[in-house]
Design goal:
With 170 residues, this protein is of the alpha+beta class. The protein contains seven helices and four strands; from the N terminus they run H-H-E-H-E-E-H-E-H-H-H. Strand 3, helix 4 and strand 4 form a beta-alpha-beta unit. It starts with a helix and ends with a helix.
Length: 170
């Protein structure tokens, strides 16, 4: 095969790749996860609220599911978002809303090329950080001792045991 034929075949291969048919779609869970992770570092946003049953579940068992409380409608080119949030007491909630909208729009657009056409945020509560942290301790944490009070007690016991062991081993 001479160079002219090789070049012609390469061009045909490139044209064939461009003509491949198919469709790229996103499951709702993917968009929810993108949004949940994007919202993780917004000041003034304490949590996205998943509603009564989700909150009840969170009180019983640790749940790090970032998709809780985020509802999306995903089309072929567009996304609409609905969510309930708990805002930090003292935060400018209208500015918080703008931050949420911009963050969602930017992250969804950059990762999927889908256009976010609507973001509806319902503020269901305002709390101080201390109230939120207190409310976030689950029954599982209390039973297993995964909260700070029990961590301190465990450290004290471990230190006392280490002291006993060191006295014994001299």
């Amino acid at each position: 095969m001479d160079r002219t034929n090789m070049k012609s075949n390469m061009n045909q291969d490139q044209d064939n790749e461009k003509n491949v048919k198919g469709e790229l779609t996103y499951d709702q869970k993917v968009i929810q996860k993108i949004i949940g992770n994007a919202l993780a570092d917004i000041d003034g946003l304490l949590t996205v609220d998943g509603g009564f049953f989700s909150n009840l579940t969170d009180k019983l068992v640790n749940n790090d599911d970032v998709t809780n409380g985020i509802n999306v409608d995903v089309g072929k080119k567009q996304v609409a978002v609905d969510m309930d949030i708990v805002a930090e007491y003292g935060a400018d909630i209208s500015k918080l809303y703008d931050k949420i909208k911009n963050k969602i729009y930017d992250k969804v657009k950059s990762m999927t090329n889908l256009e976010v056409v609507e973001v509806n945020v319902n503020v269901v509560d305002v709390k101080t950080k201390a109230e939120h942290e207190k409310d976030s301790v689950s029954l599982q944490d209390r039973i297993s001792g995964n909260n700070s009070d029990n961590d301190d007690n465990k450290k004290k016991k471990d230190n006392a045991q280490a002291k006993k062991n060191s006295e014994r081993v001299q």
